[in-house]
Amino acid sequence: MHLREGSPDTPNLKRERKLGFYERFRVALHDLGYYNNVSIIARYSKATKVLNSWPQSVLRGFSYAIQKHPELSTTVVRDEDGDLYFQRLSTVNLERLVTFKTLEDIEGKEVDTKLITLSTSENNKGFENTSTTPSWRAIALRDPNDCDSFRIAFIWHHVIGDGRSGLAIHQTLLQAFQLFEDDIDCKSNRPATMRDFTRVPTSAKQLFTSMEEMLPSSSAPVATSPLQGEKWAGKNYNDNSPIVTRLGRIRIPAKSVQEVLSKCRKYGTTMTALLQAIVAKTLLDQVPYDRIRTAVAVSLRRFFDPTLGIDDSIMGLWISTYTTEYHKTQFRKNADGLESLWQVSQENTAQINRVIANGGKDVEIMGLMGVKNYSVAVKSRVGQPRDNSFGLTNLGVFKAAPTDERNGGVILDDMFFSQSCHANGAAFQICIVTVQGGDMNIVFNWQEGVVTQEEIEGVMGGVKDLMGQIASSE
Does 439 fall in a domain? Predict the structure, then answer.
């Protein structure tokens, strides 16, 4: 992504705030080709009226989202002193950002295979930053044989938002499609109000300030002593070109998800804590090493002053991680094979609770604040072992307000969440999202050449088997 110098006097552009430390870090990773983007594909059903006015209905949905989220109309520029700024456009050309396809355009027999194919392709493409194009894109997908549902893939640069930002966009699009049904001409099935989608006005809302200005005063966390034994973290960090992202997926049926959740409540733990333990166990079963280390994403939104209005409905980059080490001896053999899994899961839950109780102080991400040049810092570690064996991000359950006749009938009933590989990050990443009352989709992403296909397939198979065992256990 080539960052052009921006000028506050350039027509149709407005200089916004400087980028915060984590935003600058994400830009550096993208520009080096180490990390491209995040994506969520969502399915919208009971959407006959929206489909009848395709494609204008989708463009109108994004017009609505642009008004709600100022990040959708910002670009990143570098000033004459080398500082990075957000710059806002006065209008957005949606015809350059939203592409329309059919499922038949994508390789694969099953729908899930097609979605993974699409996600893989998009996660391997970065953004060409210009003074007129925001750093996001979308693909609207129709199935010619389905007159009731469609899908939208939203892909965005990490600098404008974390994973929950993608949920916020799909929540906004859902609202737009529900409201949209009230603005249809009953004779023509077209929007009663037509718009120029090449010049969509941008939001009047202000960008939120950067993360470091909203967290409680904190310092870098103190490192803990590692467990004994050799750690597995894939092949050493390298920046061989091209850096290729590979994806795999597991779908856990809704009924099994509910059964597992009930077991989590029984054992006083959470789905995220359990999934950590499950992946750790299956990975240690696959590799000839004694220990592994994981980094789990944690949203920082809950730690901000509530008067700031930062919740799950808005875009922004507000995440950190907490790290945990596991040793093979923690997953001892026993009668039912699950006792140690629940014990480790409870320990994970206790760690999550400690992070929450600390109120956002001493979060691990703050260790990046003191870095002067992120590009130099990450390149200096080429050839060194990776810190983490795997990363895990669980966006939780997407919940939408119930619909009624006054609020449109469109619903969102399925999601795929993925991201590009992290060239200097964990050996592989796991992205998880569930729609309320629906299936859980677990997507694995890794860099080609860092993890073997056999290792990943072994972990995916182990996770699926253990989730099934837990769901069917007494």
Answer: yes
